[in-house]
Amino acid sequence: MKSKLILLSSLLFLSINTCASSTYKDIKYGSYVSIAHLKYIYNKVKRTSSVSEKALAKTFHYYEKNRYAKYLSPNYLAIADYTKFASQKRLFIINLHTGEVNKHLVAHGLNSGARGDRVWSAGNQAGSYKTPTGFFKVGYKEGITFRKKYDYLGLDGLEWKNRNAKQREIILHTASYVGSLGRSHGCFAIEPKDKREVFSRMKSALLFSYVGA
């Protein structure tokens, strides 16, 4: 009787661990989640976050269609929701495995909106000092800007409307003025204190700059 109980317990333990293992295949870090899990995360974030639903839907759709071809991060994606005021934490970094959302301040371009305001005018032209819109892929290699010594990650524009991102030197960088609602020359600027948290999550990630259009 005792041996039967031990055998039954062993089989139950094996069954539980097999189920856990097969479930974990869809959510472990470093692996792309399934379409079903991606939809689950989308619905969870839509219910629990203040990010624009339109921006969220566009971002998840683009990610689902392009994650393999563009070699996008399997772990995170991000939305800079510029329909919100600069005083709000409007950079949303979404964990694609758990649905956790981290929020941070992010500045907009000098000619895209007033200090502390929303983005009212996006732009792609060199010298415009405007925030570009659309989808970007965040770079993996960290650097320091030559003049102002900002820590940064590069950005690649993934659409025709932000094709000039590299030419304009549009990057994701730290800047002390972000906390006092200062504006950038078009770059995505974050507070220096957020560097470790933001950079560690956003390397190779999809970033959507959303201005409401």
From TrEMBL:
- Is Transcription one of the keywords UniProt gives this record? no
Name the Gene Ontology molecular function terms of this record: carboxypeptidase activity; transferase activity
InterPro entries recorded for this chain? Answer: LD_TPept_cat_dom, Transpep_catalytic_dom, YkuD_2
| Signal peptide positions on this chain | 1-20
One Gene Ontology BP term is: cell wall organization
Q: Does the keyword Ion transport apply?
A: no
Pathway recorded for this protein: Cell wall biogenesis; peptidoglycan biosynthesis
Alphabetical keyword list: Cell shape, Cell wall biogenesis/degradation, Peptidoglycan synthesis, Signal, Transferase
Any Pfam family from its record, for instance, is YkuD_2
Xref: SUPFAM superfamilies: L,D-transpeptidase catalytic domain-like
Family, per entry = Belongs to the YkuD family.
Protein name per the record: Murein L,D-transpeptidase catalytic domain family protein
Record organism: uncultured Sulfurovum sp
User: What's the source species' lineage?
Assistant: Bacteria, Pseudomonadati, Campylobacterota, Epsilonproteobacteria, Campylobacterales
